[in-house]
Amino acid sequence: MVTNTAAGTPPAASPIVYELAGITKSYAGQRLTALERVDFVLRKGTFASVIGSSGCGKSTLLKIMAGLIPPSGGRATLDGTPVTGPRADIGMMFQQATLLPWLTTLQNVLLPIEVRDGKAAAREARPRAMTLLQTVGLKGFEASYPDQLSGGMAQRAAICRMLVSEPVVFLLDEPFSALDEITRDFMNMELQRLCAAWEATAFLVTHSINEAVLLSDVVYVMAARPGRIAEIVPIDLPRPRTLDMVNSPEFGAYVRRIRERLDTGAFK
Ligand SMILES: Nc1ncnc2c1ncn2[C@@H]1O[C@H](COP(=O)(O)OP(=O)(O)OP(=O)(O)O)[C@@H](O)[C@H]1O
């Protein structure tokens, strides 16, 4: 049973934020079914990850959850309403920070608000953006341009850009995989801290078993062709998680279990 969550509350007691029911996806012109009957829920304040081999359908799943592509069948529901397109209450982070090079860090953080609600709304959100930048250690870099930031700093700015709209759910597509290992470890701990502070509901796509176990309350192991959830692994490790936990026997047991499932299921 899972007893620890990013926010410190038992997931069984927390309400459902996001629900996927019978999601299938076939791409036009392809005989291959990318996803077949994927069902799960994300509960308030919990961190879930999906892990699977290349091509098993993780990105397809995340794009459907973000409303970027429609499913062929089934339903995605956020906060009780069907997800039929991109929405302000869905926050996303990608492998690349994708900051616009001609805007300052602060302007980049405010961009989603400016695009959606206009310049006045962006001006109003300025103090919130400044506080967010301070929270992630970017105070003093508000006026810097993206080429003056390191990879880790750029991703911290991208975190602020995701948070500024105060989303209900965070969808994270390997956000730190382009960073060096030391920065990545640090960013994962930062992410954990922010998720706890926000009581965030988060969903991470990753290729790293260690990262999935370290951050998650539950790991969904995907198998390929057709993409489906092969196993649900609740991670019952105490929070806050620390990097030295990866050396514990409990951590190792979770990693082995997931790896075995990937070995036996992912390439069938
Ligand atoms: N736009 C598309 N048109 C046709 N087929 C697609 C399209 N996008 C993905 N696919 C196919 O759907 C399957 C799942 O792809 P997807 O990108 O979701 O996998 P993934 O698990 O995210 O892979 P990776 O880990 O390599 O990023 C693959 O067989 C892929 O070839």
TrEMBL record:
It comes from the Bacteria. It comes from Devosia enhydra. Keywords: ATP-binding, Nucleotide-binding, Transport. GO terms for molecular function: ATP binding; ATP hydrolysis activity. Residues 18-249 form the ABC transporter domain. Belongs to the ABC transporter superfamily. Transmembrane segments: none annotated. This is NitT/TauT family transport system ATP-binding protein. SMART domains: AAA.
